[in-house]
Known about the structure:
Elements: E1 2-11, E2 14-24, E3 29-33, H1 40-46, E4 55-60, E5 63-64, H2 72-76, E6 79-82, H3 94-104, H4 110-123, H5 139-151, E7 157-161, H6 169-184, E8 188-192, H7 196-202, E9 205-210, E10 213-218, H8 220-223, H9 230-239
Parallel strand pairs: 3-8, 3-9, 6-7, 7-8
Antiparallel strand pairs: 1-2, 1-4, 4-5, 9-10
Helix pairs in contact: 3-4, 3-5, 5-6
Amino acid sequence: MISIKQVTKSFGGHQVLTDVSLEVPKSSVIAVIGPSGAGKSTLIRTINALEPIDTGEITVDGISIHDKKTDINKARLNIGFVFQSFNLYPFLTALQNVTMAPMKVKKMSKEAAEKRGKELLTSLGLDDKFDAYPNRLSGGQQQRVAIARALAMDPQVMLFDEPTSALDPEMVTEVLDAIRKLAQDGMTMVVVTHEMGFAKEICDEIVFMADGKIVEQAPPSKFFTNPDSERAKNFLSKVLNH
Length: 242
């Protein structure tokens, strides 16, 4: 579903991704973890061309994302993206935030868009928040609206860039539960996260990055009990003991 081959990326003279290759099969859930500055967020942002790449190739469902011939706006219709900050429109209700893109981009009727939007918000535990504006929602509720907004475009892939990092601890669980449900439904996902328990429970593969490279990739049962690299062992000794 997602194929990343020998991708490099620099900002000025600083190389943030070095020869990164990764395969994400359909319906799999991949967690990308690692220390700050490892290149995790940059990598996930290259998957839908929010960041250009210097060399390499990224394909999603057979479409070369960084090919100049590719209509990236059309390609992005199949790639949902949820940011750290919720990026909701403050002047629109929760339902309006969810329905705007399907109506404007996919030319869906208001009736159909609202029906789908209400279904999505209800599935995420927000059936009483259709008419609420973002400033009347908690952080966890806003992030779930952001997830519903991405799902309203019926993407084939969902990308999450540290979706819980801006939340208070008591709000983290409700967002992780929403992502957990997507995993159970078979959505293909790449999740940049600091939530080790979530990664261990939900994800099919753990991708550990450091210094702009994929240092190690393994199933959670292997990675969290017996990682191969010293870099991963050192990382886990810090994050699992705090």
